[in-house]
Amino acid sequence: MSADLSADPISDGRIARRFASLKAEGRAGLITFITAGDPDAATGQALLDGLPAAGADLIELGMPFTDPMADGPAIQASSLRALAGGMSVRRTLELVRGFRTKDADTPIILMGYYNPIDSYGVDRFLADAKAAGVDGLIVVDLPPEEDDELCIPALKAGVSFVRLTTPTTDDQRLPAVLTNNSGFIYYVSIAGITGTASAANTAVDAAVARLKRHTALPVAVGFGIKTPAQAAEVARVADAAVVGSAIVTRLADGLDAGGKVRPGTVEDVLGFVRELAGGVRGARG
Q: Distance between CA atoms of 188 and 119, rounded to whole angstroms?
């Protein structure tokens, strides 16, 4: 049960509108990642609510999970902090619902793993996510061969399903990865977990060019982007730069020995996002 959805079927949604707006502006976007409820629900809501004004064009919101296998130590730790603070799938959707009372336009993509969604119930999850204002999903442990589990139901529910491609996704595998992909393509610029070394610019340039030969969808590049300068390098060739671990680490640096948020931490994190956005927005002159 699959169809060629390489040109986004959810063409009137927030994600498509935002990338169309970015194209009209002649610039790339900044996609920011935070973990929902890290380290507590109030801080998570404040960060989420503040990201658009700080320059985030799209937001990835991590769904905390006990075994985030694709993530490095920084995001693993953020998941554990959020879970210890009582975060759950239901409460993650509540954060999105709260965000939507203030922002009707910025796309939100939930990123995580299948187990919590399966436990919640796929149909119920998709209905609740759509009602809360979720625009897309990135579920890193569901390959194309299992599209019937979540991808196809998500697309039918009007929720984009964003797939990861990597440096090891060769031309033989790429068509399967792109089938049913919606929203944008997320190119993982390094082979490994989040928060590790950055890829060489020449490798990113070649990878983006190759993907664009295969799909009309926007291409976002992430993993290993830690500074405004690195974000700018990616933004010169990709449709968006994705920054996650560096933001999560900045938040972690603002916690005290007991894991509580020090005064000014939210403002500091949002200030860092402004610096990243400045790099992205100035990347093409």
A: 27
The one catalytic residue in 60, 94, 147, 239 is: 60
Confidence category of residue 30, pLDDT binned at 50, 70, 90? very high
Looking up residue 245, the CATH number of its domain turns out to be: 3.20.20.70
What is the pLDDT, as a whole number, of residue 8?
55
d(CA 150, CA 147): 6
Does residue 4 form part of some domain? no
Using the predicted structure, report yes or no on whether residue 196 has a pLDDT greater than 60.
no
Q: Print the domain residue range for 18.
A: 14-281
Among candidate residues 71, 128, 147, 239, the one labeled active-site is 71
Stated pTM of the model: 0.93
Tens of pLDDT along 108-126?
999 999 999 999 999 999 9
264-275 pLDDT tens trace = 999 999 999 999
What does the buried/exposed string (b/e) look like for 84-121 if buried means 16 or more CB atoms within 10 Å of the residue's CB? ebebbbebbbbbbebbbeeeeebbbbbbbbbebbeebe
Q: Examine the residue annotation and report whether 60 is marked as an active-site residue of this protein.
A: yes
* Complete DSSP assignment for 138-207: EETT--GGGTTTTHHHHHHTT-EE--EE-TT--TTTHHHHHTT--S-EEEE-SSS-TTSPPPPHHHHHHH
User: Is 6 among the domain residues?
Assistant: no
pLDDT value, residue 67:
81
Distance CA 106, CA 55 (A): 11
